[in-house]
Amino acid sequence: MTRALFDAAFEAARDWHTALPALGAFCDWPDGARFADRPAVAVPAITHLQANPGAATAASQALCTALIDLAPYVEWRHTYTESEVGADFLQRYGWFELIGPDGHYLSDQVRMTIGFWGAGLVYGRHQHLPEELYSVVSGAADFMLDGAETLRLSAGDTRLHPSNQPHALTTTTDPILTFVIWRGDGLADAPRMTKE
Ligand SMILES: [Fe+2]
Predict the structure, then answer these.
(1) How far does the centroid of ligand 1 lie from the alpha carbon of residue 128, in Å?
(2) From ligand 1's centre to the CA of 161, what distance in Å?
(3) 126-175: per-residue pLDDT in tens?
(4) What gap in Å lies between CA 17 and CA 36, rounded to an integer?
(5) What is the rounded CA–CA span in Å between residue 8 and residue 183?
(6) CATH of the domain at 40
(7) Separation of 191 CA from ligand 1 center, angstroms?
(8) Which range marks the domain in which residue 72 is found?
């Protein structure tokens, strides 16, 4: 049953939130998030995720597997246009909202999304009002943040992006699968590319 796959991913995400102290410090697990029947929207990145999610750890493997199993059934999104990020980027990138104002589970308290990027992609500087905490489920990437040092993150690592602080992400030889939390005002906003 598809619903069972959603609930398995929800539970695995909750376990991940419990396992990583930085996630629990950033926000509580949302109360009363209820399942919403949203249509599946496929993106080409599903195939890439299933073929190679990148290296997980013992702690992240359950979430990684649950997300790969769920991938054909979620409402994937792109946010950006081809003119903004290029055709190759759109072939090998996608995200979906697991929990949030427009998520597969509805909550107004936080927004929890899953993002995937294939190897060798540059996600340029962008920003958004909500504070953001990335956690890496599998794979690796270089995380840039204005005013801070660039860090290569792999499974189990986290990075905080302050409100409207431009940041960017580059994958090199590995893809990356991420679990991302937004908190604060503007949870239903889209990120936007930084102008300067
Ligand atoms: Fe962001």
Answers:
(1) 6
(2) 7
(3) 999 999 999 999 999 999 999 999 999 999 999 999 999 999 999 999 99
(4) 21
(5) 24
(6) 2.60.120.10
(7) 7
(8) 2-193
